[in-house]
Amino acid sequence: MAHVDLRPFDDDDADAVFEMMSDPDAAAQAAFTADDPGDRDAFDVWLERHRADDRVRMFVVTEDGGFAGTAAAFTVDDDREVTFWIARHARGRGVASAALRLLIAREAERPLYARVAADNAASLAVLQANGFSEIERARSFAPARGTEIDEVILVLPPTLDGI
Ligand SMILES: CC(C)(COP(=O)(O)OP(=O)(O)OC[C@H]1O[C@@H](n2cnc3c(N)ncnc32)[C@H](O)[C@@H]1OP(=O)(O)O)[C@@H](O)C(=O)NCCC(=O)NCCS
Q1: Which pLDDT band holds residue 60 (cuts at 50, 70, 90)?
Q2: Per residue in 74-130, pLDDT tens?
Q3: How many angstroms is it from 121 CA to the middle of ligand 1?
Q4: Residue 49 alpha carbon to ligand 1 centre in Å
Q5: Is residue 163 part of a domain?
Q6: Among 68, 59, 111, which Cα is nearest to 88's?
Q7: Ligand 1 centroid from CA 96, angstroms
Q8: Range of the domain at 13
């Protein structure tokens, strides 16, 4: 497998991230997206807000040094959550699983949570391969689908030795 790594987000990454996140098929898969994933102005506002927030750690995922996606940790209501998104050209060969492994190694806080559309089988597989397991289901509005759908909440618990 190619070498997967995480690096800090850079100004020059914005175009690639927008292109990736505005892909209609990818947005439909992720489901819980911006109201209009194709709105560049709204994306730029969202990006600036997250980059200015010290509770958000956003990384670019690289595969052999090239842009392959994003992985991030952020805080919602005191819960630490993770998320990831892999560009179409880099999918299907373990990049997301490797990126999540690196992200959770860099995030000291436990438990870590993730929220995924119940039908996003690839994302569920990536999380479960990294030790997350389902704790709850909810009905939530999914902007990219324009309707409420089932959402799975997963947790990566503390290990027995507390790490
Ligand atoms: C979900 C996503 C991150 C997966 O990225 P990826 O690099 O292709 O993932 P990996 O190759 O590491 O692993 C994918 C796993 O899903 C499995 N998978 C893929 N499609 C599947 C499907 N339709 N049904 C069941 N399993 C599936 C693969 O077999 C693999 O599991 P394995 O490692 O046990 O074989 C990518 O499709 C993506 O970014 N999609 C758009 C945004 C998104 O949905 N992000 C997640 C939001 S929580």
Answers
A1: very high
A2: 999 999 999 999 999 999 999 999 999 999 999 999 999 999 999 999 999 999 999
A3: 7
A4: 28
A5: no
A6: 68
A7: 7
A8: 4-156
Q: Tell me if 162 is assigned to some domain.
A: no
**Number of domains, the chain:** 1
Cα-to-centroid distance, 29 and ligand 1 (Å): 10
Ligand 1 pocket, residues with Cβ under 6 angstroms = 26, 29-30, 83-86, 91-97, 116, 120-123, 125-126, 129
Q: Name the closest-CA residue to atom 41, ligand 1.
A: 26
Residue nearest to atom 36 of ligand 1 (CA): 86
